[in-house]
Specification:
The protein is of the alpha+beta class. It has helices spanning 44-59, 73-82, 106-113, 132-138, 166-176, 415-418; strands at 23-25, 150-157, 179-183, 190-193, 196-199, 210-218, 235-239, 252-256, 261-271, 277-279, 288-290, 294-300, 306-315, 320-330, 341-350, 354-366, 371-378, 383-386, 403-406, 412-414, 421-422, 424-429. The chain has two domains: 17-267, Cysteine proteinases (Cathepsin B, Chain A), CATH 3.90.70.10; 275-429, Jelly Rolls. It has six helices and 22 strands. Helix 1 (44-59) packs across helix 2.
Length: 430
């Protein structure tokens, strides 16, 4: 799996340990979907991300038709790397293979946040038997041309070098469903004892090669079920993506609390709005952060009947305050993102690092050919950006007169000079 290079600061206050049940299993509440089989090494990141997305959909009871969501891992894993629009395709040090390419939890966020998915599995079923002709046929259709089944509204990140702690992860699981974590997986170290399939292996330090979904926990799960034995009882319940026959617990296994795992991403879904239109320049999402507290994107409206309803952005750490300003510039390109007319603003505070969608005050009409800007101020002095990173986002394209950055909100630097696109999106509807 692909390591991420973004540091995320964890400074959260969650409920006391006594407030959590000793045992919790999302399966007991119908809040998680069935186990799938990735078949080959590589696409675990796509399976784990969509498992979390499906779990959140069930947690919110958005499936009012009674159907269990079943999202397409093929659509996500294939088009993240093989997108017909090159600037929307991630790159890898591994130059061969299609579904076997590595990934991380940030890639699905970038992909889904630009309304490229997710889609139902019946539109593009997963198969590892894909050849050149199959790839060529798939690339005749962009990922956005498939019917979207739901929308990514938020993503909460616990990634970073600091261990987020058991309680933060438990809090996310109880509130939002399964979360995504990274670990080192060595199949020779898995053990079966009685009805339990378990794993505990810290021989590889901070190295990671597998991504899974945490679906619950048991504080009293005996250390005797592991080999070698950890020092204390307690384990995470893990939904894996190796099918139901590998292991003795229907595709799940127990992972010691003492196992080195990294991060934790919750995906927050909402029902799909097919009328949404996306404006943004960061197709590859949050790649790095730059030392600015202000950023802005200037967009040009594509349609006569659009109404601006939402803005979206990333926060690089927890407990950050934000301010959003919408400016209208008319049909002439503005000299600054804050020139002309301020037509809306809003502010607030966000608890988790991650990706966030903010509803703007009112529906703001914009006309075809009219320029408008979305200006963001973040506390903390660091702004997430899309940029060129070797073996990850080498296809990122930074153009002049699109993204801008500022230290004071008055004097602005074009993103092309710092080689970065602002991770700021606008969403309209008609």
């Amino acid at each position: 799996m692909k390591k991420i290079f973004i540091a995320v600061l964890i400074l959260l206050c969650v409920r006391n340990a006594e407030a959590f049940p000793a045992r919790y299993d999302l399966r007991d509440y119908g809040r998680i979907t069935s186990v799938k089989n990735q078949g080959i090494p590589g696409p675990c990141w796509a399976f784990a991300a969509l498992a979390a997305m499906e779990s959140n959909y069930l947690t919110q009871k958005l499936n009012t038709n009674g159907k269990t969501p079943d999202l397409s891992e093929m659509h996500l894993a294939f088009f993240c790397y093989m997108n017909p629009d090159k600037k929307s395709a991630f790159t890898s040090a591994k130059k061969s293979g299609t579904l076997s390419l590595e990934g991380n939890a940030f890639m699905p966020v970038a992909f889904m946040s630009r309304l490229a998915g997710p889609v139902n599995d019946n539109l593009l079923r997963y198969t590892t038997d894909i050849n050149y002709d199959d790839r060529k046929a798939l690339l005749k259709k962009a990922p956005e041309n498939f019917k979207r089944s739901m929308r990514l509204r938020e993503a909460y990140f616990l990634h970073g070098t600091q261990d987020p702690g058991e309680n933060v992860r438990k809090d996310l699981i109880m509130k939002h469903g399964a979360i995504v974590v990274s670990m080192y997986s060595d199949f020779t170290k898995y053990h079966t004892k009685g009805k339990y399939y378990t794993y505990f292996n810290n021989e590889h330090g901070s190295e990671i090669n597998h991504i899974v979904a945490l679906a619950g926990w048991d504080d009293n799960f005996s250390r005797d079920n592991f080999s070698p034995k950890p020092q204390k009882n307690g384990a995470w319940l893990v939904k894996n993506s190796w099918g139901t026959t590998r292991g003795s617990n229907d595709g799940y296994f127990w992972l010691s609390y003492e196992q080195k795992t990294f991060g934790g991403t919750a995906f927050i879904a909402e029902k799909n709005n097919p009328r949404l239109r996306h404006y943004g320049y960061d197709d590859l999402g949050w790649c790095q952060s730059v030392n600015y507290s202000w950023a802005a994107n200037i967009f040009k409206a594509d349609d006569d009947k659009e109404k601006l309803i939402e803005a979206a952005f990333y926060t690089p750490s927890n407990n950050l305050s934000y301010e959003i300003f919408i400016y209208q510039h008319g049909n002439k390109f503005p000299g600054s993102p804050v020139s002309e007319k301020l037509i809306a603003d809003t502010k607030g505070k966000i608890n988790y690092a991650g990706y966030h969608t903010i509803t703007l005050p009112g529906k703001i009409p914009i006309k075809r050919g009219e320029y408008f800007s979305v200006v963001l101020k973040l506390s903390g002095n660091y702004m997430p950006v899309e940029s060129v990173v070797k073996n990850y986002s080498e296809n990122a394209i930074i153009n002049e007169h699109e993204s801008y950055f500022s230290h004071d909100g008055k004097n602005w630097t074009d993103g092309i000079k710092i080689k970065a696109n602002a991770c700021i999106k606008a969403f309209t509807t008609n």
